[in-house]
């Protein structure tokens, strides 16, 4: 639809051409609408004014209006009698809403949101479009700064990783292998010293023993490497499975309060650290620690006075290590924390790339990303600066140890009168001391790296230990009939629900009884609690008090897997997953191809004989044959047809029809449609409504209404207000109530139309 050039005014506002893409047909007859463009099959079908197109009985636009008028509120006979519609007052108009329910977003944390909304991290005043990018970056990270652990990593974190790696037996075996390898290396050097003092006798014997010792050390090193890597791999697998299980079974409140970037950070950077870096730092730390201990033992055993010079140097060494480790650990934590906003912004950008390009917001997002990366790189760069600081001090410490070893050896050699045997041992002692500088340096670095990498284990454990939902299966599940619920009778008995402790109640004592196989429409203003009915029925959030019964069975006693498998949900935002049509319809491979084709045919996405639709009249599109394929909906030719991520290669209407087909396969006796036609055009809306009524006529259906015409032929209408059932009766009865909420809502809709 083209809204022609807006008139310029004296204040100097420039003229602009406005293009409005809309499903709200009430705006088409507006005086500012200069032209209407009617699209069909990817082409421009008709162009003209409202009067020109609507007056032509052969035009697609005219047929389209005719189809919609047949299902409009005014054309429906609700009670058999004429009903006088009285416009509501301004106050009622301001308070009532047709749908589009972010009802919980302003009152409390929202129930399950669409992936687009879930990925966003809202900061204070962010919607205003202003503010400093640095302030926004800081706001995104504030919560996680508060959440992060402080101080030394708890020893229980080390214990949990060790248990995941195999427990005490594996740990003792690995430590024994490290000690054995280091012992063999010391023995190898001592054997060379002994060989050099033998005077060249029995060369073959000494050479053979030297070879045996070194080959044994090589073999032990290989076994040690395999054991440690396998232990690390096992620990990574166990921790990943625990993390994934915890996230999959986390309550919805967790996802409401946790930005997607933090979850991605755990599964990406933190898991990478556990998979790769933790194994390397742990293995290197144990190896260098074994070298340092063996060096101290060898040097002290040969020159006992070395211990007097060693004590102050060790004190200095430990002091520097503790100071460095404390700083390095916190820098690593900050490095991890500052990555989450980067992942979150990346997800949001990829998800909204079309909107970003349409509004030319690339530069703004680039600046935000650069600011976030700069903050993250500050912490990352400081880790290397800290390592350089430590290296200088450890080099000094190592040099002093070599000096002490040489000085003590010279002094002790003089007291022994130039003993040649001691000269060889002194050489062995000094050779070990020369290597201690590098060993000390790497020991401290690896100890710090090990603790810093253990922060990843600590962060993963935070999410692995979050409270889970109720049990998936319970004992009562086995006693329920396989076809439960048989009737689909639903009772809300004084049901109260809040999304998280400390937040206000959203359902405030709901008491209604929905008869079996009834078709119930739910309406109400924003925040009234419409979508919360679905949340309560699926137990996405547990009731504070009261109960909900289906066929007389309290759903709180039923396992979540059993309960949710018996309820079909057709959401507002239809979600398809990358794969094929078959995997989206039947992810657990429970049905044969004939059954899958059958449901696709029922919803109009497949026909054994593909028919090309070319008629200008849309009325034939709704003539009644459910297998008819036409209009904008193109047929699915194969169950192996590719579905891209999010189903973006299908239109919104096609995705919604496929979700309905998926719901049909469940054979559920209770079906919930949560504003499923809120974002589709009227033509697709009519098709979805027809399929919905035909295929679920024997099920209890609850429809959260966005368009009133979708629920006007319902058996009952529930009007929610402030978490309570304000009105619950047939549409005709509610329309006859003067001053009723539903009547006011209909009047408001007619005035807007």
Automatic annotation (TrEMBL):
Region of interest: Disordered: 103-138
Main location: membrane
Record domain ABC transmembrane type-1: where: 186-452
Keyword Transport carried by entry: yes
SMART domains: AAA
ABC transporter domain residues: 490-747
Membrane topology: Multi-pass membrane protein
Record protein name field: ABC transporter, ABC-C family
Gene source species: Skeletonema marinoi
